[in-house]
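Subject: complex prediction, re-run

Hi both,

The earlier run crashed halfway through, so I resubmitted it with identical inputs.
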Amino acid sequence: MLSIIVTNLRRRPTRTVLTAAGIAVGVATIVALLSFTQGLQESASGFVHLGGSELGVFQANVSDPTTSVLPESMVGRLRRRPEVAQATPLLLIVEGIKRDPAAVVFGAQSDGFFTKQLVIVGGARPTSWQTEALVGDRLAAQLRLSPGSTLDVKGRAYRVAGVYHSGILFEDSGAVLGLAEAQRLIERPDEETNVIVRLSPGTRASAAARAIERDFPGTQAITTPEQALRAGANGTLISKAILVIVAIAIIVGVIGVMNTMAMSIAERRGELGLLSTVGWSPQRVATLILGEGIAVSILGAAGGLLLGVIGGDLLVRALGVSSYVSPSVTAWGLGRGLLVGVAIGVLGGIYPAWRVTRMTPLKALSGT
Amino acid sequence: MTERMAQAGAEVLVERVSKSFGRISALREASLHVEPGQAVVITGRSGSGKSTLLALVGGLEQPDAGRVVIDGRAIWREPHPARARREVVGFVFQRHLLLETLSAQTNVEVPLLGAGMRHAERRRRALELLDEVGLADRAEHVPARLSGGERQRVAVARALANEPRLLLADEPTGALDSVTSERILDLLFGLRDRLGMTMILVSYDSAIGARADRTVTIVDGLIHDHDAHDDARASAS
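This time it finished cleanly. Structure:
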């Protein structure tokens, strides 16, 4: 059976390759989007644990967590809570660095745990937080910055005092200014984007988050990457858009395979009639058609997996979010791509296969 | 193979069978009884209903009325007509209907594949059958590399693959020159003589009837049955 399937697919190489290419594009789209969302999730994980914190408090119902606005007075009230060991405010500045708009600039207190946990790998901590900045090692490598060079943020030049590494993508792809200087720079005095919190020993993050949200109406306390992804309307929108694109890719793939197999059946009515005549059951003939659909889909899926891995990286670059998101290709992501490819073959082959089972041998033979 | 196939041919019973295609009546209350092992030639003009009768006997089509019974089995009414066909009937058509992309050997293997036979056994049987029809040295050739007569011989080998007790041949020499036609007929009748299967052969050429046990003529969907040897004797006298 397999050799007949292979022979039949080789009989029309152009059609087989074009159909496989269509499926490959669909599978590649899915793999790229899955690697993007996986990367997004991993980035969100970093976003949740900024500065090694266990939870982050943001304004509720914002389109994006980076647009959150909280009053500076809030951090003092949080610090007084028994479940909070440490709390420090952050002001996030997005698109502040022209040469890398995806890089995030963190306005942070010089004595807060966010700043203190940064490992300085070059230069030193700033002596003047009004005129100096720290840059993450990824950003430094990308913009070729080193201690003593100048970093331009929102049109103002800061001397790079040191280069740090934290192990969190967001942080290492960004830069740190003093909180007061950041507030002055973007004209948001007494405001912060979020407060990151380290909890007292033995405190459960989810319980602490619920208590904080209850006592601070209008805020949301984020403890998991999933929450971070859902926290902003943009994240939700991205997730839904990806679902829609995946669905479209499957539908287009299914129609492509269905069309190919239907054409193939129309051309091969006589041959299929002959198989029935010599004793192939309708189910076996249908299996042949279905097998051809699945084989061409697997061929397409294999190409699609390769394209998807490359496409994930291209997607992140095209969206200009390479500092936020590093596409992450997992075995499960590739497996899902392959599954979708096979599903396309099965779904696309079902209708043509069913049609084959409805043909009487004589009518089919007369089609030769 | 010869030993395995040396079993009695099938008995064919066609009872008051009618078949129409739209407004065209192809067969009208046709009846025919073929004894096991008999070779019957069905002749008639183009469009007389010969091929329709053969298709009904082979279970390729359902009669509108009447019944066709092969060794007590009404193929079309069986729960699995394809399996029933595979177990009883072998077909040879005017056009060889070989699968163009497959080798001669794989073409012969196709019915065996339908029977779910294992690869090694399939291969062995196909080579045996090709040897039977004198094409052992052409096993790897695709149909395009075979002559018209060779293709038809591969089709005969394919028809024999499942050891049929009934061989149905629809104008098997219709697309061949006279020399090749004689060779194919020699092959078919020789196989029938050696293996003992029942054979029904459709041909517009009534001369073929001289080789058969009986000749049946169809005129406008009606069967006229007569003994071929009687005709031959009558012609001779």
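The CA atoms of residues 184 and 190 of chain B lie 10 Å apart.

- K.
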